[in-house]
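Model the whole thing, not chain by chain.
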Amino acid sequence: MPDTMNADELAIGPPASAIYTNGDESLRLSVLNALAGVRVRVAGRFMHMDGRIEPFVDSLLPASDRSVSTKTIPLARGWLLNAQASISAAAPQTGQTFAVFTLVRGRTGNFEELATLAAGPITAVHRLAWPGSPILSSVEGAGALRTISGTTPGVGAEVSEAVPTGARWQLLQFAVTITTSATVANRVPFLVIDDGTNVLQQFGQGLATAASSTRRNYWTTGISMNATGFAGSAIQGFATSLMLLPGHRILTGTTALDAGDQYSLVRYTVREWIEGA
Amino acid sequence: MVECLSCGGRYEPMQSDGTQYFHACPPLAVHELRAALDDGTLELSLADAERLDAAEAADVAGPPPDNEASHVDAVLRSIIVERRNKRDENIRVGPATKDGAARIKAEGAGVVELPADKRTALVESRRP
């Protein structure tokens, strides 16, 4: 099939959805990504002034720390017919990789954003396409489910897990084991939420852990606030919509924690969205 | 696995699901706050000092039962004091440095890499 429009076709003109560019503009792909090994493929078609339709293909290896990575594709004078972004390596969940198409003026250095064409999550199956895809927020949708192995703190220290830069979390479940020293006292772990400066909420365990013993403590949504316990474990409910912003923390705050006590096996489940760094 | 030289915490910088983990040292625990108050290295704000004084008076007036936290413990648990030379691997928001790499918020005392551990799994018996 020819890649050039004939005179009759030129007379009709490009599709109404096409964007005219004057040669100073570029298509910019911005990606915020939380998964290592992701590669984003960007492709599309451009119609030159002489009617010649030229496909373009490029790729981007975005950072995996939710910071913005960009690919700028200079456009000639003519019409941008379509563009699409898709995943060509790794398998991010919906919500782990978010892409934005914009039209910018400039090719290097100081870019001036002129229009947002499309924005939304991309996966190995779900593509972002212009025209067609809407402009979505990165905090829309179901979010990506993650189970995280946290830091085993030093002896005598509390647990502390921070929401990373560029992420928004909904905490679903938190579990930690405490092994107590021989110092006689009843340790009562609290699940503490703070914003880095102020304590926002605390959820205590109803079952204390005595000296020289081990207990696995669970906090989870969807159950009552009253604690229960079974064979060396304790379980406690907490609020169902515990939304946490970048810099917020999930900590333990333990009554009578001794310098010889040890927390371990920190495991928690969150629903995560990209907040944008 | 690495160990943070600021707080002694151990963690995997890359999670099994392929996401990065950004360690940040925990704030001081209650017993560490007590030790710092005792040796004079912790200076409380006026508001925190007043709350602590009131809690001490409450504990004297009505000591809590053995299975309940003291008023002083409750106040200390609400005071957030970051440890010295805290490490925070979360990236700084703003322009990247010249090489384009994002920078973490605080290096702290750094980390040391620990020998990799093997996974718990079945093996051929070593018994004769």
